[in-house]
Amino acid sequence: MSAASQSWAFQPAGSSPTLEAHAGGEEWFAVHVRARHEKVIDQRLRDNGISTFLPLVREVHGWSDRRKVVETPLFSCYVFARVLPRNDCRLRVLMVDGVLRFVGPGTQGIPIPEEQIEAVRKLVEEGLPYSSYPFLKIGQRVRIRSGALDGVEGVLISRSGERTLVVSVDAIQRSLAVRIEGYDLEPL
């Protein structure tokens, strides 16, 4: 997908298309919604006075008889909503038809830091080329997909701010660590 074919959409109720300052203790939450209903649910939430964030990308879709530029959600099945972390505010979101649940343990959901929402907004808004990448977390088993270490598997760790792969030999209970900055990784 090229940078020229991407766009970003965010429209809290009654405001311009920019993120507003964190006001009144409201926090961002990811809301799991019905597949292919992200735009409709985003509009329903905004109609109920809830600030939302739905990053969209423009893609060219082709059919046998035509090609068309369509806007699709960057993260399918998710809409971000900014609400007070109170049960009555969460209930307003959950009562919207098509909303399945808040993302996180139990029914409460976990707040998303403003910096992460802002980072996604900036990436999409600037039109820089990007692509989806599997979520990798420290402590996860991964496999290197390219370069001289192609196929090597181990555990991803962070040491002094650098990504490191730990390869272990279980039988002798020994491990070695190698810096893997710049290598393409995939989760196992």
Question: How would you explain this protein's 3D organization?
Answer:
This protein is an alpha+beta fold. It folds into two domains: 3-125, NusG, N-terminal domain (Alpha-Beta Plaits); 141-187. 16% of the residues lie in helices and 34% in strands. It contains three helices and twelve strands; from the N terminus they run βαββββαββαβββββ. The protein has helices spanning 38-47, 87-94, 114-125, and strands at residues 27-33, 51-53, 56-62, 67-73, 78-83, 99-102, 111-112, 141-144, 153-159, 162-169, 174-179, 185-187. Strands 1, 2, 5, 6 and 7 form a five-stranded antiparallel beta sheet that branches. A five-stranded antiparallel beta sheet has the order 11-10-9-8-12, with no helix packed on it. A two-stranded antiparallel sheet has the order 3-4. It is globular.
Topology record:
Layout: E1 27-33, H1 38-47, E2 51-53, E3 56-62, E4 67-73, E5 78-83, H2 87-94, E6 99-102, E7 111-112, H3 114-125, E8 141-144, E9 153-159, E10 162-169, E11 174-179, E12 185-187
Antiparallel strand pairs: 1-5, 1-6, 1-7, 2-5, 3-4, 8-9, 8-12, 9-10, 10-11
